[in-house]
Amino acid sequence: MKKAQLVIRILLGFMLVIFGLNKFLQFMPMPAMPEAANEFMNALVNSGYLLIIVALIEVIGGIMLLINRYQPLVLVMVFPIIVNAFLFHLFLDPVGIGGAFFASVMNVFLLFANKESYASLFKAK
């Protein structure tokens, strides 16, 4: 189980760093997407800040996973980004859903592997 956690943590970390950096450096070409998906992406870019914040969280979170620091916090911070990527592909661009699905599964696996870190969040007071 520990080896699986290590491998998945490193894979998710690299995935976050690569896709986060790509938002800044655009070293991977954007594939053709349906019109609704293009409109959504344009809205993120035109906001002037949202895509930058997402990219920063991905890069910083990915680095933190790679060096194994603040893993429980990082997993919670990137969860909404990964879920949104999955839903984006599910509803707007199904062709690219594979990577988002893989990232979602890795994130959920690591969240459950670290469930003791979240125990206090679910205690009623």
Automatic annotation (TrEMBL):
Pfam families linked to this entry: DoxX (PF07681)
Keywords tagged on the record: Membrane, Transmembrane, Transmembrane helix
Keyword Ribosomal protein: no
Transmembrane domains' residue ranges: 7-28, 48-66, 73-91, 97-113
Top-level taxon of origin: Bacteria
Subcellular location: Membrane
Membrane topology according to the record: Multi-pass membrane protein
Primary location group: membrane
InterPro entries named in the record: DoxX
Membrane recorded as keyword: yes
Name of the protein described by the UniProt record: DoxX family membrane protein
Organism: Aquimarina hainanensis
